[in-house]
Amino acid sequence: MEKIKTNPAPFDVDAVRRDFPMLATELDGKPLVYLDNAATTHKPRAVIDRIVKFESEQYAPVRRGSYRLGEAATEMFEDVRKKVAAFINAGDHRQIVFTSGATQSINLVAHSFGKRLLAGDEIIISNMEHHANTVPWQMLRDEKGCVLRVIPVNDDGTLSMEGYAKLLGPKTKLVAITQASNVLGTVNPIKEIVKMARSVGAKVLVDGAQSVPHMRIDVREMDCDFLAFSGHKIYAPNGVGVLFGKYDVLESMPPYVTGGDMINTVTLERATFAKPPGRFEAGTPAASQVIGLGAALEYVNGLGMEKIAAHEQSLLEYGTRVLSGVKGLRIIGNAPHKAAIISFWLEAAHPHDVITIIDQDNVAVRGGHHCAQPVMDRFKVPATTRASFSFYNKYEEIDALAENLQKVIKVFG
Ligand code: PMP
């Protein structure tokens, strides 16, 4: 095979890999080749150690006004809110709501912002959304009698901006759109999407689950009303996520989950509610996970989001060229601007067979519908195999994937 030129990474990838204990693991004597980063990412030692320190030396109830330990834990917890705000350039940390993940962040908006919508109001999503940004809007449509409109996707995996323009109208109340597709990799032009939504007075929710970990995000520049993302896709623990919301929009929204911590006063008759973000954070928060998220953001900031994006884009370019050379392999999603995700259909075998065979060599990629069945239908495939890269991946791992696909072809072809 012809040797494909590679760009040197803007940091020492081997040194970075040594920060991630999971990347040094083996199964049956075979090193882990982890190319499933769109599903979830591994944690650097700095995140693991930070959680262990919090749990073993600093743990106390947060936000429960108590003794010094509790106050210190609360300060650490609130400090992460400021870190998140700075990370996405939100300006005001009161615009950061901690949730359990992108799914809950989107559901929060559907249940709370959605409460105000009326029959006939229109919500726009796209044909490339994750189920987390599809099902909540279908439920709201059925409950309220809203109209759900869907932006078509072009053959190359780009969003049809003409299609979007046609859907916008005076009844459009919300556009809920992914910034990066977890199947196609397509990065959507959010600034333009927001600008167009503004022309009809609609709000915009951006699903940032696949973008926030991989590119510099500036919510003020994008001018979106909401941004949702998950901790576990950005090297933080499971069970924590973020909803950014413009303060005036959050302030206008009723509570979603109710209970402790989200109130001002409660009598047996009624309750008054706290201002955001507290209004949306009922119950004892996932403090250790939030602390871990803070450490994860420090870690990626240390590497630099621009450098992370540059290396991942080089992996994407290399992976696209290498995989295009595999016989009978069709890449699904060829937009000019993509996150480092390559979904493909291999003529020789179903994705479930592909992943089972290459798993024998401890190569981890995902096979299935990726919780995005409407986009599978759009491209007329039941499933795809998906390789998704992180800054800790190496070109050699892509070679290992390609060699394993040759084995699959030999078995089935
Ligand atoms: N949106 C997109 C684009 C995703 O890829 C995912 C996770 N695969 C989600 C939303 C949901 O994230 P979580 O499961 O962490 O809530």
What does this protein structure show overall?
It is a single chain. With 413 residues, the chain is of the alpha/beta class. The protein folds into two domains: 128 residues, Aspartate Aminotransferase, domain 1 (Alpha-Beta Complex); 255 residues, Type I PLP-dependent aspartate aminotransferase-like (Major domain) (Aspartate Aminotransferase, domain 2, 3-Layer(aba) Sandwich). It contains 14 helices and 17 strands. A seven-stranded mixed β-sheet has the order 4-10-9-8-7-5-6, sandwiched between helices. Strands 13-14-17-16 form a four-stranded antiparallel β-sheet, with helices on one face. Strands 1-2 form a two-stranded antiparallel ribbon. Helix 2 packs antiparallel against helix 10. It starts with 12 loop residues before the first helix and ends with a helix. The mean pLDDT is 97.
Keywords:
413 residues; alpha/beta; Aspartate Aminotransferase, domain 1; Aspartate Aminotransferase, domain 2; 2 domains; four-stranded antiparallel β-sheet; 14 helices; 38% helix; 17% strand
